[in-house]
């Protein structure tokens, strides 16, 4: 299943160029692909399932990144359901800006 059209691809390329890719995830076409993928994967994390564990999926992941392969953004076979920990392992660069503040117990009187 592939819902990509030349018009959608042009729009997506423009979103990538202007660093607004997140807007793509609000499109009707992406919501259709996401819904179908969740149904096909029974809303289970596919990586955990391959490891013999059941974990509910938190998101639908693009196997080949949208920025590098916009033509595959609406290709069902380029998606899989993942839980947050599996998705974070897939994209550690997205976590690099997040640093939790360490507890500092400096008493001040």
Automatic annotation (TrEMBL):
Q: Which domain of life is it from?
A: Bacteria
Span of domain HNH nuclease: 32-88
Q: What is the similarity comment for this entry?
A: Belongs to the HNH nuclease family.
Q: What is the lineage of its organism?
A: Bacteria, Bacillati, Bacillota, Bacilli, Lactobacillales
- Record key words, sorted: Endonuclease, Hydrolase, Nuclease
GO MF entries: endonuclease activity; hydrolase activity; nucleic acid binding; zinc ion binding
Q: Name its species.
A: Streptococcus suis
The answer to whether the entry has keyword Hydrolase is yes
Q: Which residues cross the membrane?
A: none
* Any one of the GO CC terms: cytosol
- Official protein name in the record: Putative HNH nuclease YajD
Is this entry keyworded Amino-acid biosynthesis? no
- Pfam families referenced in this protein's UniProt entry, alphabetically: HNH (PF01844)
């Amino acid at each position: 299943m592939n819902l990509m059209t030349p018009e959608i691809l042009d729009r997506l390329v423009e979103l990538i160029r202007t660093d607004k890719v997140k807007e793509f995830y609000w499109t009707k076409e992406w919501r259709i692909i996401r819904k179908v993928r969740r149904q096909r994967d029974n809303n289970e994390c596919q990586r955990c399932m391959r490891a013999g564990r059941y974990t509910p999926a938190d998101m639908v992941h693009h196997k080949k990144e949208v920025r590098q392969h916009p033509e595959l953004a609406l290709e069902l076979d380029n998606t899989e359901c993942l839980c947050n920990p599996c998705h974070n392992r897939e994209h550690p660069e997205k976590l690099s800006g997040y640093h939790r503040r360490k507890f500092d117990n400096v008493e001040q009187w």
